[in-house]
């Protein structure tokens, strides 16, 4: 029974990792193919990290920005990249925008690749440790 639970955990973790990698690669392909613009930070939204595991929650900031597309239209967006310090209004960051719909834009930054790259070995080690623990766990 414990092996079934372990197999379900590993399957779910593998599925989540594959989806995260696919989503990250898709977003990176979009950013690479879309035109870039220099955006101006207009403010930021404050939030909290989830505080997973034994980590403490901390305040994070997601910058709001505005930019002009190649036709001169003004568009606004909010970055998916969070910062530990409040971004200074008026500072610049690079964004990639969808030429067909400039309302869709992403900050040109790839910290998610680092996170996914670190998360996969951690989940693999956790799965191996759980498999080892199940093997020595006395049943009965």
Keywords, please?
140 residues, 2 helices
Structure description:
This protein is α+β, with helices and mostly antiparallel strands and 140 residues long. It has one domain (2-6, 13-136). It has two helices and five strands, in the order αβββββα. Strands 3-2-1-4-5 form a five-stranded antiparallel sheet. The longest helix has 32 residues, at 2-33. It is elongated and about 70 Å long.
Brief summary:
By secondary structure, the chain is α+β, with helices and mostly antiparallel strands. It is built from two helices and five strands, in the order αβββββα.
Instruction: Give start-end ranges of low-pLDDT stretches.
Output: none
CA(first)-CA(last) distance? 12 Å
What's the helical proportion of residues?
A: 40-55%
Listing every helix as H and every strand as E from the N terminus to the C terminus, the arrangement reads HEEEEEH
Total domain count: 1
Write out the strand line-up for the largest beta sheet, numbering strands in chain order.
3-2-1-4-5
| Secondary structural class | alpha+beta
- β-strand amount: 25-35%
Largest sheet: 5 strands, antiparallel
| Overall residue-averaged pLDDT value | 86
The number of distinct helices, counting runs of at least 4 residues, comes to: 2
Cα-based radius of gyration, to the nearest Å: 20 Å
Number of strands: 5
What's the assembly state of these chains?
single chain
Shape: elongated
List the helices and strands and how they pair.
Elements: H1 2-33, E1 36-48, E2 59-68, E3 74-78, E4 92-97, E5 105-107, H2 111-136
Antiparallel strand pairs: 1-2, 1-4, 2-3, 4-5
